[in-house]
Amino acid sequence: KRSSSPTSSSSAQPLKFSMTTPPWPWTMGLGMFMTIPRGQIEAAQALGLRSIPMVRKVVVPQLIRFALPGYANVWQVLVKSTAVVSVIGLQDLVGLANDAGKTAREPFVFFTAVLFVYLAITWISQQAFGWMERRYALKGHHAR
User: Fold this and answer.
1) Are 137 and 143 in contact (CB under 8 A)?
2) Tell me: the pLDDT tens digits for 95-144?
3) Tens digits of per-residue pLDDT, 12-65?
4) Is 63 exposed, middle or buried (0-12, 13-18, 19+ CB in 10 A)?
5) How buried is residue 94: exposed, middle or buried, by Cβ count under 10 Å (0-12/13-18/19+)?
6) CB-CB contact of 95 with 85 (8 Å)
7) How many angstroms separate the CA atoms of 124 and 37, rounded?
8) Rounded to an integer, what distance in angstroms lies between the CA atom of residue 111 and that of residue 114?
9) d(CA 94, CA 114)
10) Which of 8, 47, 72, 138 is deepest in the core (most CB within 10 A)?
């Protein structure tokens, strides 16, 4: 039986993820915003665009274009981190497969199924992010 003390792995890992994961997207978003040349914002203002249309037509398309690769990377890390967390005691797909494998005495069947589930999640995610990168890429330029 696992301990429910504040230092147990069950309580420490969600705390660790909640403290370390949010700064990545925040820092990437700030960095992406800083990559937009100031001249483009000044040009939009010179054309008479107000704040909301300027953000919608100039800033956001560039933010999406610059941010997608980084956010795709963070997403893939998070998907794979859930499997690592299960190894130390938290329940997710790997933990459930472990329990089912012990019960049925066929652990490799369940772990193989989980492998394909994680493979499908990462492949579908990669395809979706690749599509978005191509969608928001500049015409004539490839996102990768």
Assistant:
1) yes
2) 788 888 888 888 889 889 888 888 888 899 889 988 988 888 777 655 55
3) 555 555 566 666 667 777 777 788 888 988 999 999 999 999 989 888 888 888
4) middle
5) buried
6) no
7) 33
8) 5
9) 7
10) 72
Amino acid at 5: S
Q: How many residues in total does the chain contain?
A: 144
Phi and psi angles of residue 16, each rounded to the nearest 5 degrees, phi first: -60, -45
Q: The whole model's pTM is what? A: 0.53
Q: Which tokens sit at 127?
A: 């395809």
Contact between 108 and 101 (Cβ < 8 Å): yes
Given pLDDT bands bounded at 50, 70 and 90, which one contains residue 4?
A: very low
* Residues 70/32, Cβ–Cβ less than 8 Å: yes
- Residues 6 or more apart whose CB falls under 8 angstroms from that of 114 comprise 93, 94, 96, 97
* 20 three-state secondary structure: helix
Measured distance CA(77)–CA(55) in Å, rounded: 30
Whole-number Å distance between alpha carbons of 108 and 89: 19
Distance between CA 87 and CA 55 in Å, rounded? 44
